[in-house]
């Protein structure tokens, strides 16, 4: 970790403190461009916006997907207070961000939280692979896909 990495990571933790002070879960993130400038920053707003997807990592990945070309996005670094969840990692990958630096791992976060009260979701499938493949087949090899 460089001194800049440490400085940006501390800012992500400050954003997490701001989120908590505002009544939201304590998570914060910022996106730094290839030249070292802060491009955007955000904090969790899932409670105040009544939106379970209002994670800062997801919001920044969506911003990057709209505002940055893939080459620029690949040169960015996201600094975040905790390791991104699966939902956020999917968005980070799809927005082509180059690097993620986090302060607290998922395992460390889990150790600080009470056990999940929600039952697990039962996932079933593939149930109709032949029919399901029809709209997808060829999409990822065509020039028209984003």
TrEMBL record:
It comes from the Bacteria. Pfam families: dCMP_cyt_deam_1. PROSITE patterns: CYT_DCMP_DEAMINASES_2 (PS51747). SUPFAM superfamilies: Cytidine deaminase-like. GO terms for molecular function: catalytic activity. Residues 3-122 form the CMP/dCMP-type deaminase domain. CDD domains: nucleoside_deaminase. Residues 117-146 are annotated as: Disordered. This is tRNA-specific adenosine deaminase. It comes from Nonomuraea cavernae.
């Amino acid at each position: 970790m460089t001194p800049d990495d440490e400085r940006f990571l501390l800012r992500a933790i400050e954003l997490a403190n701001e989120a908590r002070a505002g009544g939201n879960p304590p998570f914060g993130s910022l996106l730094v461009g290839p030249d070292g400038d802060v491009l955007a920053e955000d904090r969790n707003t899932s409670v105040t916006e009544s939106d379970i997807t209002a994670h800062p990592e997801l919001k920044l990945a969506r911003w990057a997907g709209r505002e940055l070309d893939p080459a620029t996005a690949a040169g960015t670094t996201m600094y975040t207070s905790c390791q991104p969840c699966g939902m956020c990692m999917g968005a980070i990958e799809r927005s082509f961000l180059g690097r993620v630096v986090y302060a607290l791992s998922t395992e460390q976060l889990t150790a600080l939280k009470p056990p999940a009260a929600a039952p697990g979701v039962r996932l079933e499938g593939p149930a109709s692979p032949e029919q399901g493949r029809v709209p997808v087949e060829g999409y990822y090899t065509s020039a028209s896909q984003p």
